[in-house]
Amino acid sequence: MRKVLLLPVLVMMLLGGSCIVRSSLIYFDSDTEGVPNLVINPSFSAYSLSPKEALKGWTVHTDPLSGEGVSIAIDTNQALQGETSLRVDASDKAVMIMSDAFRVRRYGGYYIRVSACSSQPAGPQLSIRFITFGDTGKIRNTFKTKLKTEADWTKATISAGFLKPGSNFGRVAIMIPPFSEGSVWIDDAGCWEVHSFRID
User: Fold this and answer.
1) CB within 8 A of 23, min separation 6: which ones?
2) Rounded Cα distance, 131 and 163, in Å
3) What is the pTM assigned to this prediction?
């Protein structure tokens, strides 16, 4: 599938920086009630004992791409929702955790949420992105917000809509910069279609 083959290009664009759109829409947690989460495995549950298959619904990328020296694991001792979270330990590499692609509609309104905490009182600042793209893998929209981690769970949200023509798929990307001490936990991630814009 062509859009899967273009994933490495998407990863490099996001790690290296790309055009960002800020949305003027505002949605809330309450808007997600009764609405399905488009992200598979939002609580980072372990689906297999095999490390390559455990993190269903997500892909991990590092910069440099070798990934050596990066410790990422499903943690059963720390969770905001459910019984697990994803722990990323300190390293000198940038890490991006990207959801599997899901269908989006140009005239849909989307609410994206990610929660995180740190073992340190002031942990690294994460970058949360909602990316839409077309059938060929070309990026159509990128929405972004920041999430400053601390000892307590905090969340970041994005309200997105007015997608560009050709926006057929979406992904949630969580970008963690290099940091020198402790760990970061991520949980309660998701994307919901909470609004449908009227088409005249």
Assistant:
1) 143, 158, 159, 160, 161, 162
2) 10
3) 0.86
Cα 148 versus chain centre, distance: 15
Residues, the chain: 200
194 contacts 110 by C-beta, under 8 angstroms: yes
pLDDT in tens, 105-114: 999 999 999 9
d(CA 32, CA 111): 8
With contact defined as beta carbons under 8 Å apart, do 94 and 177 qualify?
yes
CA dihedral 49, 118, 97, 48 (to 10 degrees): 10
Domain ranges of the chain: 2-196
- Mind listing the pLDDT tens digit for each residue in 62-91? 987 766 778 999 999 999 999 999 999 999
Three-state DSSP class for residue 86: strand
| The most confident of 24-28, 51-55, 75-79, by mean pLDDT | 75-79
Tokens found for residue 157:
């949200």
Cβ-based neighbours of 93, under 8 Å, separated by 6 or more: 62, 63, 64, 67, 69, 70, 178
Spatial separation of the C-alpha atoms in residues 74 and 97, rounded to whole Å:
13
Output the CATH code of domain 2-196: 2.60.120.260
Q: Is 152 exposed, middle or buried (0-12, 13-18, 19+ CB in 10 A)?
A: exposed
